Design the sequence.
């Protein structure tokens, strides 16, 4: 029997296209058993009615931090009435009111009619007492609270929510960040540190083999068999590895399948992947660039220009030119370089003779685009 290799216009290659959505929580989390177990261990006491331990989750973008929290929280919701997990996306909710309303929503099923923080806080405490439950709040991308100036106040108020109330149990906090230049425990002020003694859980970048496994699994879940051959998955894994972001791999496959589908074919080729690649920007780079200060961004932009024109990337030479361009001293210049390295945008290598060389991790074009988007 001849294999039908062309699609009718109403056919699709996707079993479930949502599997390639950025907010999709996969059935199985690969290579994160250690982190899941550690997090479960820290939360453990709450299941027995005691104060949970606080946690900081750190790791570059796309290392499964958000997914790990959402998985553990989903399981908590299913198995325990004693712990009430509340997930806060701090990119969206970073004011005191927004965060308290999000907690109220989880507890009462709707936001509070009051706009007074104290009223909402009291209602939250009363609800926890009535339910004899322990509140567990995750602040995802918590660096946004720091820039919003609410980080310390929120942590302090939430961790001390039990004060002034009989029989309200002490809550726990999980703070998550993808910004490796940011130290969430060091950002806590003295008053917060007396109640916030977090254990840190690190999420290392995935190796290329791990990325390949994760992508293979996603393809299996979201597409009909045979649509994406393993060679194409390998190429996508390689490109995601170069970008340092697994999201790039997922987005590439989704776009390549749509491309092949549009063309009426049942099988994705490497050419499809290469055709859609220029349109796939690295969300990791965008997030990293958006978190930079204007001065750091100006330096990055100039580095990309130099790299594009093939000029020397020795840091001393870059400084000599930069100092005419933006008036900064050597110390500030080196601080900015280190920040760019800590953010995972450049590498600082030692060349023979002790000279320091700057290497961009992304193409100049990607850097220009990310800078333009960041404004
Ligand atoms: N271990 C994993 N197994 C399966 N999918 C994963 C895994 N880690 C990350 N992903 C997927 O990669 C994307 C980014 O993961 P995410 O948890 O948002 O990363 P982070 O919060 O560290 O930036 C999501 O689509 C997620 O489903
Ligand atoms: Mg995340």
Sequence:
């Amino acid at each position: 029997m001849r294999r039908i290799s062309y699609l009718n216009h109403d056919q699709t290659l996707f079993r479930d296209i949502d599997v390639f959505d950025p907010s999709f929580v996969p059935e199985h989390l690969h290579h994160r058993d250690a982190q899941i177990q550690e997090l479960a261990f820290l939360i453990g006491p709450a299941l027995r009615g005691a104060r949970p331990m606080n946690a900081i989750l750190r790791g570059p973008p796309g290392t499964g931090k958000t997914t790990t929290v959402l998985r553990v929280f989903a399981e908590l919701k299913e198995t325990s009435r004693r712990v009430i997990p509340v997930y806060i996306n701090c990119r969206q909710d970073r004011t005191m009111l927004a965060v308290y309303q999000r907690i109220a929503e989880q507890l009462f099923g709707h936001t509070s009619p009051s706009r007074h923080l104290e009223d909402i806080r009291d209602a939250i405490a009363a609800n926890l007492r009535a339910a004899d439950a322990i509140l567990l709040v995750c602040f995802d991308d918590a660096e946004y609270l720091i820039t919003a100036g609410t980080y310390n106040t929120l942590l302090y108020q939430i961790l001390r929510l039990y004060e002034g109330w009989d029989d309200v149990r002490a809550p726990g906090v999980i703070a998550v960040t993808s910004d490796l230049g940011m130290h969430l425990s060091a950002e806590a002020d003295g008053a917060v540190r007396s109640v916030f003694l977090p254990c840190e859980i690190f999420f290392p970048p995935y190796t290329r083999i791990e990325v390949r496994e994760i992508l293979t699994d996603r393809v299996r879940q979201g597409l009909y068999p045979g649509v994406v051959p393993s060679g194409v998955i390998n190429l996508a894994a390689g490109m995601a590895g170069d970008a340092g972001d697994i999201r790039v791999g997922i987005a590439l496959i989704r776009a390549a399948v749509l491309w092949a589908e549009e063309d009426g074919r049942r099988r994705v080729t490497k050419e499809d992947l290469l055709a859609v690649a220029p349109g796939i920007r690295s969300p990791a780079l965008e997030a990293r660039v958006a978190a930079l200060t204007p001065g750091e961004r100006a330096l990055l932009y100039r580095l990309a220009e130099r790299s594009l024109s093939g000029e020397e990337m020795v840091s001393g030479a870059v400084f000599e030119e930069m100092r005419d361009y933006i008036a900064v001293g050597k110390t500030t210049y080196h601080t900015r370089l280190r920040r760019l390295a800590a953010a995972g945008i450049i590498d600082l290598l030692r060349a023979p003779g002790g000279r320091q060389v700057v290497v961009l991790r992304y193409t100049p074009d990607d850097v220009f685009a990310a800078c333009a988007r960041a404004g």
About this structure: The radius of gyration is 24 Å. The longest strand covers residues 83-89.
